Amino acid sequence: MNSNMEETTTLPLNISDVNKPMIFTNRLHMLLHSIALCFLFYYRLCYFFQSRATPPLLLPWILVFLSEIILSFIWILGQAYRWNPISRTVFPQRLPEDQKLPHIDVFICTADPTKEPTIDVMNILLSAMALDYPPDKLHLYVSDDGGSAVTLNGMRVAWKFARWWIPFCTRYRIRCRCPKAYFSSQESDDDFGGDMEFVAHRKMIKEKYEVFKEDMLRFREDEVHSGDATGITSQNHASIIEVIQEDSRDEIEPVNLPSLVYVSREKKPSHPHHFKAGALNALYRISAVMSNSPYILVLDCDMFCSEPDSVRQALCFHLDPKLSPSLAYVQFPQKFHNISKNDIYDSQHRSAYKVLWQDMSIITAYSLLGTELEPQQQFGASNKLIKSLKQQNFTPDLMNDGKALPDEETLLLASCNYETNTKWGQEIGFLYGTVCEDVHTGFMLNCNGWNSVFCDPSKPQFLGNSTTNLNELLIQGTRWGSGLLDIGSSRFCPLIYGPQRMSLLQSLCVAELTYFPLYCLPLWCFAIVPQLCLLYGFSLCPKVSDPFFFIFLFIFLSSLTKHLVEVLTTGGTFRKWIIEQRIWMMKSVTCHFYGLLDATLKKLGLREGSFMPTNKVEDHEQTMLYQMDKYDFRTSKMFLVPMVAIIIFNMSCFFGGIYRVASVGNWNSMFMQLLLPCYVIVVNYPIIEGLIRKDKGSISTSVIILSNFLVIIIHFILSPLLI
């Protein structure tokens, strides 16, 4: 690797640009907002030391004060992202020639062919096989945690189609190399629109793609009709490893393709399998004895390579001699191709990928040197694995033996007992203990002295399918919320474990990510407590005539304005800003709250960890509502009832509060508490719309009844406790 770097051109492979105007704006906002928060805390604390004729409302005041402290705490953590914004540019054309490029292993994980359609997974696989990279240096591994014959057959069929698809992409320099995405768009044909040879070739490839799809669908139907009498299930099956080597000599002239390996690790109900992290570690071990590439590309099963040079862009950092000695991974933002114009579910996560820092590993290189224990105590009993880890230039011959089925020692690496009494998942590989294994592993790599790079090119390098319905959005949010809080409440707490091993700013960034679900606590408080006090005429905010009123108003407007500026400067609109505010509220009072509850129960030993894959099957009815910018409220009552109840509660308090204020005439002291429910109602008007809509995605009568019942409970049970 060092010789490769020495022979590269002296021109830099990448450059970094610091956004100085944004740094000034961000730090000025931090200063002013922090000063305002200090005044707010002073005002709240003074309340407890004031003498008054009537007994003070301590409980509501304390709850609101604690909520403001939590909001301020998360805000302070989030400022670490904005302290020094940097953008990066790469120059893949300056990389060494192909024969000097390193080998790359590509990992793709799937678990359920029902929720993760095999045809879509195979399209991801084909996009990776067709990358603009030397095929003899590209090795693809698909982990099938479901042990499904449908997935294995899909890989065999995909291998046959790849012998036609890859030469077509190479010959005509096709940019989008995912067949499904390519054939659904005509953009890539502009350069060859009048070339009859190209038109004929494209037609032939499309016909073969249709046959490719039909073969997989037919096999799946046969599997469903035949059933399974073996007793093998997704949670109970032996390890299977197969090198895909279909003979297609009669179809086309020989084509040099990347190597392709199917892996289904052994699973037993009595053994923990550690979800995706366990699957990735199994691939890591198996790839070490089959291809032993120094770099790994990890793809989600719904995330295809949208640019053929995406690997080369990452190598612009890994082959940079100034970065490579301590560079663990390069991360690209997740972007999606199925997003509507207005993106009503905030599925593209603009704030996270355009402003904040994400820690999902895309390309990873681990250091396995300097260990203190015996190799077997860390990596297990496989001599082949230990040999591959110790020898940097070790090249396994198993891939070149022409064997479709690897030997017993390779199968052992995928067994459920292999990791017993080793450091896998604890100190080595992808770490266990949370369903957010990417965040946990990235954080620990940074703590161990490794650096990481976030690269966001103008053209998206990877495109995927995002959630486009409320149900999957909230299920996914619950899983993420629970997993992030697992990290934040563990011994690897970023605020305690991080500062001793990494920079303070890095620690604060990871801490904000792990504690972000705690927004649920202050949002539940601000959705109920000030509104109840409004109904009963108790003020929790300064009077309009009080100088502190402008402090409260400044903090409120400062937060909203800063968010709006960030949305507009990253290509968003005013409507997008409203949508992000709405989704933040919806997720906070539902999935983040349930994620906190789930993490708490796991911490107390009252619940075991679980992982439910996001349903990636396209529903045409849901898609139609999404494209019409209508929320589909066909989700669980546990999600929907709290949202609807909060809106009904705020509406009743708002109109009741206006009536009371108009009768008593205390607008001066109640203005802020009238502003809050008004803000909640205006931002969440689609929920009100869902109450009166008549389509299938509207809010059901049973949800409305339960929500009103919950509102009654809040009014008549919580009121005596708070007031």
UniProtKB/TrEMBL annotation:
One of its GO terms (cellular component) is membrane. GO terms for biological process: cell wall organization; cellulose biosynthetic process. This is Cellulose synthase-like protein. One of its GO terms (molecular function) is cellulose synthase (UDP-forming) activity. Its main location: membrane. UDP-alpha-D-glucose binds at residues 115-116, 145. It is a multi-pass membrane protein. Keywords: Cell wall biogenesis/degradation, Glycosyltransferase, Membrane, Transferase, Transmembrane, Transmembrane helix. The chain crosses the membrane at residues 28-45, 57-78, 516-536, 548-565, 638-658, 670-687, 699-718. The active site is at residues 145, 438. The keyword Cell membrane does not apply. Mn(2+) binds at residues 276, 300. It is found in: Endomembrane system. PANTHER family: X-BOX TRANSCRIPTION FACTOR-RELATED. It comes from the Eukaryota. It holds the Pfam family Cellulose_synt. The keyword Transmembrane applies.
